[in-house]
Design goal:
Glyoxalase_1_CS; 4-stranded mixed beta sheet; VOC_core; 2,3-Dihydroxybiphenyl 1,2-Dioxygenase, domain 1; about 260 residues; metal ion binding; Thioredoxin-like_sf; lyase; Glutaredoxin
């Protein structure tokens, strides 16, 4: 394996899944977002949260005796999945795996301040890492069940609150945020027809995105649109709209759609 630096300093681990491997060649279309790693202070608390609160299954545990740390790999699987039984090769072919890294002793060290959760700005810290998200069949029901059955769980944003109202952000024991949304949460955002439910925003030639965000906020209480469609064509997000506008192509697309 190898680790490559993202422009913002985040590490990206490169591993081999071995599927349809051809010597001295690589196929970009076969790549997978295999896992995300976060460090945790107390593995018992973290495993309880992800397994009991969010329904993850424990795929595999890897203990490094000499280096004194343990890796726990979790994700979603069928109800009859036998936990802690997945071999490493099969795990490398999966997507959306969560890796918890526990450095031994942190759970009993009162002087250990804990890991930065990526969102705190206390003591001059700069927010960086944000969250990862899980999609479920009914986000509201899941959130209400968590509130009822696990009242000790902390929330960054409860379901029904905030501008969007259809998503929630729950905090794990280390303060990392997990977004919860329904698989159909955003259907109204992408299925809207331009002539019925969409808004047309007039842009300045020098627009840097602030005008778009302010107009969107006034209309929808949101400052960004993750996906924009014009007459069924996927345009992208805010930056893509700005690019089209700067190339004098946006107005023509809107007029054609009308």
């Amino acid at each position: 394996l190898a680790h490559v630096d993202h422009p913002d300093g985040y590490w990206i681990e490169l591993i081999e899944h071995g599927v349809n491997k051809v010597e001295n060649k690589t196929d970009l279309s076969s790549y997978k977002l295999n896992h995300t790693m976060i460090r945790v202070k107390d593995p018992k608390a973290s495993l309880k949260f992800y397994r009991e609160v969010l329904g993850f299954k424990l795929f595999h545990t890897k203990v490094f005796e000499d280096a004194k740390f343990t890796l726990y790999f979790l994700g979603y699987e069928s109800p009859d999945f036998k936990e802690d039984s997945l071999d490493v090769s099969t795990q490398a072919t999966k997507q959306s795996v969560l890796e918890l890294t526990h450095n031994w002793g942190t759970e009993n060290d009162d002087s250990f301040p804990g890991y930065h959760d990526g969102n705190s700005t206390e003591n001059g810290a700069v927010a960086g890492y944000g969250h990862f998200g899980i999609a479920c069949d009914n986000a509201e029901k899941l959130c209400r069940e968590i509130e009822s059955e696990f009242p000790e769980v902390e929330w960054a944003l409860k379901y029904g609150e905030g501008p969007a109202k259809i998503i929630a952000f729950v905090k794990d024991p280390d303060g990392y945020q997990v977004e919860i949304f329904s698989t159909d949460s955003f259907k109204d955002w992408t299925d809207a027809s331009l002539t019925k439910d969409a808004y047309i925003i007039e842009l300045d030639e020098e627009s840097d995105g602030d005008e778009i965000q302010q107009a969107l906020y006034e209309l929808t209480n949101q400052r960004t649109v993750p996906n924009v469609f014009i007459a069924g064509e996927h345009i992208g997000g805010n930056s893509d709209l700005q690019a089209l506008n700067s190339q004098d192509k946006l107005e023509a697309k809107i007029k054609a759609a009308l």
